[in-house]
Design goal:
It contains eleven helices and 13 strands. It is of the alpha/beta class and 325 residues long. The strands form four sheets. It has a five-stranded mixed β-sheet with strand order 1-7-6-4-5, with helices on both faces. Strands 8-13-12-11 form a four-stranded mixed β-sheet, sandwiched between helices. The protein has a two-stranded antiparallel sheet with strand order 2-3. The mean pLDDT is 97. It binds acetyl coenzyme *A. Acetyl coenzyme *A binds next to helix 2, helix 6, helix 8 and strand 12.
Length: 325
């Protein structure tokens, strides 16, 4: 069977920084509350004319350069996002056009914070089957556009950004195992109610603020810890590995306390866990994608290392992936 690995990484973060102090001027909150409850210090926000595919393009160009490939070499583009530029066409099609990847088949994947791992899994299958050779997988979000800036329960949590990888056949190492899961019975815990076919946009949906993220954070917190721990154990077992074999864990960056509790449950030292939540907050599908790029660029990932991606989000959905670098 073909081995599929990551041959290039990239990221793109918007320039504008919103600090906790800035937020304290907008809603009844404090720097101290946000840091102790979430671990977040600041997050990035897009400029007025910037959309998801613009961030995706920045990340994609960096990943292509890193992989020493040209846009025309890419035959598959998958963008994981819950905040595409428009309902349709897909963000992937806009991305294709802006980078000139004219030979690529393009589509989006909607799996919230687990979207990046879901998209990697799809790309892996296509490459393994021989259908496509070089896949560009991007996690890109503009969550600032669906954040209720009057709701202190959610507005302190989210940010904008994009991360990208290029996947191809590799001679050794690569993806060792992927584990995905979903539980639609808990869909109500985290959602944007309006703007789809259930509640099309109307004056009423706007008046009721139904186009913004609504989250039952407390309930999700417990499920996130249990689910991410289970996903990590399962994907490692499937790869014939144990937690002690992992060199670096790159978890979804929703809350520092979720990550720390999960690490403790797994018996993992926090030194083996990559964090960027304090700089970017929760960027949904972009969180693990950006974190992977930064971990590689900072020298935290070396050839032969065992890397674990572990994600969880709205759906509910979860996905974990073990890679030998
Ligand atoms: N500033 C000050 N006080 C606040 C704020 C704020 N920004 N937000 C909430 N509070 C208050 C609440 O009103 C509440 O006050 P009360 O006790 O008087 O009612 C108190 O703080 C505690 O609120 P909780 O919601 O219980 O706080 P908690 O410690 O659970 O932290 C948080 C909330 C950060 C949202 C946490 O629950 C969390 O991270 N949940 C999981 C998020 C997650 O995993 N999401 C899934 C992935 S994201 C995706 O898919 C897009």
């Amino acid at each position: 069977m073909k081995k599929v690995g990551i041959i290039g990484v990239g990221k793109c973060l918007p320039k504008k920084v919103l600090t906790n102090a800035d937020l304290a001027k907008m809603v009844d909150t404090s720097d101290e509350w946000i840091i102790t409850r979430t671990g977040i210090k600041e997050r990035r926000l897009v400029a007025k004319n910037e959309a998801t595919s613009d961030l995706a393009a920045g990340a994609a160009k960096m990943a292509l350069e890193n992989a020493c490939l040209e846009p025309v070499d890419i035959d598959l583009i998958i963008v994981a996002t819950v905040t595409p530029d428009m309902s349709f066409p897909s963000a992937a099609c806009f991305l294709q056009n802006s980078i000139g990847a004219k030979n690529a088949v393009c589509f989006d994947v909607s799996a919230a914070c687990a979207g990046f791992v879901y998209a990697i899994s799809i790309a892996q299958q296509f490459i393994t089957s021989g259908a496509y050779k070089n896949a560009l997988v991007v996690g890109a979000e503009v969550l600032s556009g669906v954040t209720d800036w009057k709701d202190r329960n959610t507005c302190v949590l989210f940010g904008d950004g994009a991360g990208a990888v290029v996947l191809s056949e590799v001679k050794s190492g690569g993806i060792l195992s992927i584990y995905l899961g979903s539980d639609g019975s808990k869909a109500d815990l985290l959602k944007i109610s309006a703007g789809g076919s259930r509640h099309p946009a109307s004056h009423e949906t706007v008046d009721n603020r139904l186009h913004y993220i609504k989250m039952q954070g407390n309930e999700l917190f417990k499920i996130a810890v249990t689910t991410m721990s289970h996903a990590a154990q399962t994907v490692l077992k499937n790869a014939g590995l144990e937690c002690k074999d992992v060199d670096l864990v790159i978890p979804h960056q929703a809350n520092l306390r979720i990550i720390m509790t999960m690490a403790k449950k797994l018996g993992l030292s926090m030194e083996k866990v990559y964090l960027n939540i304090e700089r970017y907050g929760n960027m949904s599908s972009a969180s693990t994608a950006v974190a992977l790029c930064e971990a590689v660029n900072e020298g935290r990932v070396k050839r032969g290392d065992i890397i674990l991606l572990d994600t969880f989000g709205a759906g509910l959905v979860w996905g974990a992936c073990v890679i030998k670098w």
